[in-house]
Amino acid sequence: MNSPEEQVLTDVLVIGSGIAGGVAALALAENSQLQVTVVTSAPNPWESNTFYAQGGIIGRGPEDSAELLKEDLLRAGGGYNNPQAVAILAREGPRLLQEVLINRLGVTFTETAEHDLEYIREAAHSTSRILHVADATGRAIEEKLIEAVSRFPNVTLLSLHTAVDLLTLSHHSQNPLDVYAPPTCLGAYIFDQKRTIVNAYLARKTVLASGGLGQIFLHTTNPATARGDGLAMAYRAGARIINAEYIQFHPTALYRGPADAPRFLISETMRGVGARLVNQQGQPFMEKYAPQWKDLAPRDVVARSIHQEMLETKAERVFLDLRSHMAGERIKERFPTIYQRCLEAGVDVTRELIPVVPAAHYFCGGVWVDEWGRSSLRNLYAVGEASCTGVHGANRLGSASLLEGLVWGWRAAQDIRRATGRGEPLNVNPSDVPPWYDTGRCVADPALITQDMSTIKNIMWNYVGLVRSSARLARAMDELRHLRSEIDKFYHTAKLSDSLIGLRNSVQAALTVAMAAWENKSSRGCHYRED
Questions:
Q1: Is 315 helix (H, G, I), strand (E, B) or coil?
Q2: What whole-number distance in Å separates Cα of residue 292 and Cα of residue 477?
């Protein structure tokens, strides 16, 4: 048991340090005297989905406009997008990119030979509008962002700190009269991995920026931290969750054998510059499935086309042919990270076809938020992949995720600054918040955690993957409910660890996705029902 003295009071608690959480912390630190605490479960603060984003971020191309971008977002999202969110992104996104990423952080995007910004075109975009830093755009942004945030004395940046549960009046206050108060977030219980203790972080405002959930699938491009922590915590706290069935599968991840995961993403930018998808006979096949777009079709179309081609040819993978469309030295220059990572896996992309398979890549649903990132719980904001603004609709337009994180991280910070004054009282008396009680008596068996995670991944891949049906989803929900019950018993009897927290969150996130997929009987975007 921790003592009450181990409570930590902060003005704003930010859970997650990718572009959304980082930009929120930066905006709060630069423009106010608020004390901001940023926590991440990763060993390094830059470890996030943002860090691994290769392709780029949407800007305003030379032949582009807000209206054109809105049209492309709506088309990619199957018309299921939130019109207000789309308008905000199209209007404010390119401006904030210039003001925050270029002017303030000094991110150096790739330029043309004439020293102008190089705008490229990606799948489902109607014009060239993507800015990039070679093939490591997210890394360039994230490193600059963490460097900038770290310089502010009013920001505390904590790695190896895992959020366990959101603190709410209704769930945690020991004052019985708080049950009559509106659902309100007070902060979170945070597990210090080094000291193996849990502290209650009490905050006036909490920003959930914990990223996605790709790790609940067998094949994913996401890092180990993307296991649905934010979704599961928000669900348990009673926040509204929407669009959880919409999981975008990236069509091209490097295939190195059935047991290899996570998959290294092969950016769709390769197809944007001319690479073609071919089967094991070396034959291009996208025209058969998407004659209008061919290899530049929306991601869900490409992913399902690959899936179908693999079934028809009884193959474990297909291939990406870049060597026929770009000279070897130019490949090394344009895609240095992909070239090196493939080389490490035994594939020379300047000479060989690249073996690829689809992999879970982006979560289009999440915690419902309004135009300022406010969730259905008072004082809880959600930004980035953990949230659902509705900007992506049923499917995400390529390179829109970094821009959404930038825009809503910034907007959430502006709303917090307006609503929160220095010295403003908390919504609860700190003495009414109980210390954490660790009921675990034994060390969690890593073999059990590994096996349970493997079970979750296989259930989700086989039953809740690219192609879904009533029979598969019913099986998934039955098995996940039973597994959740077993994991809950495990969780309450074993000593707390980051991997045990992740397991508990993963099974809840998986069940949330499966149930949403079951409820939605129609096919739209990246949710495809064969029945």
A1: coil
A2: 37
Q: What is the DSSP letter of 178?
A: G
Tell me how far apart the terminal alpha carbons of the chain are, to the nearest angstrom: 51
| Beta bridge mates, 157 | 38
- Please list, in sequence order, all residues whose beta carbon lies within 8 angstroms of the beta carbon of residue 151, skipping any fewer than 6 positions away: none
> pTM for the complete prediction?
0.91
* Eight-state DSSP code of residue 120: B
Residue type for position 233 = M
Whole-number percent of the chain with pLDDT over 90: 81
Pick from 7-16, 49-58, 280-289, 353-362: least confident: 49-58
Provide Rg for the chain, Cα atoms: 22
Which residues does 88 contact at the CB level (< 8 Å), separation at least 6? 371, 391, 407, 411
Q: Which 8-state DSSP code applies to residue 392?
A: S
The residue whose two tokens read 């992740």 is 502
Name 291's Cβ contacts closer than 8 Å, sequence gap at least 6.
Answer: none
Alpha carbons 196 and 257: distance in angstroms, whole number: 36
Which of 139, 299, 396, 484 is the catalytic position?
299
| Model pLDDT for residues 311-347, shown as the tens digit of each residue | 899 998 999 999 999 999 999 999 998 999 999 999 9
Return phi, psi of residue 200, to 5°: -90, 115
Candidates 227, 95, 237; CA nearest to 172 is: 237
pLDDT in tens, 37-87: 999 999 999 999 899 888 899 999 999 999 999 999 999 999 999 999 999
Question: What token pair was written down for 301?
Answer: 């179309």
299 is catalytic: yes
pLDDT > 60? residue 377: yes
pLDDT confidence tier of residue 421, bands split at 50, 70 and 90: low
Does the N-terminal peptide bond of residue 262 adopt cis geometry, omega within 30 degrees of 0? yes
- DSSP letters along 226-281, please? -SSHHHHHHHHHT--EE-TT-EEEEEEEE---TT--SPPB--THHHHTT-EEE-TT
**Count of Cβ atoms closer than 10 Å to residue 374 Cβ:** 20
Q: Which amino acid is at 444?
A: A
**Residue found under tokens 């709303």:** 415
CA 354 – CA 11 distance, rounded (Å): 49
* Residue 469, strand partner residues: none
Q: Residues 312-318: contacts with CB within 8 Å, 24+ apart?
A: 313/279, 313/280, 313/281, 315/279, 315/280, 316/255, 316/258, 316/357, 317/255, 317/280, 317/355, 317/356, 317/357, 318/277, 318/278, 318/279, 318/280, 318/285, 318/355, 318/356, 318/357
CA gap 151, 145 in Å, rounded? 10
Residue closest to 6 by CA, chosen among 380, 492, 434, 429: 434
Q: Which of 320, 163, 204, 186 is nearest to 255 (CA)?
A: 320
Structure tokens at 285: 């096949």
β-strand 36-39 against 155-158: which pairing, if any? parallel
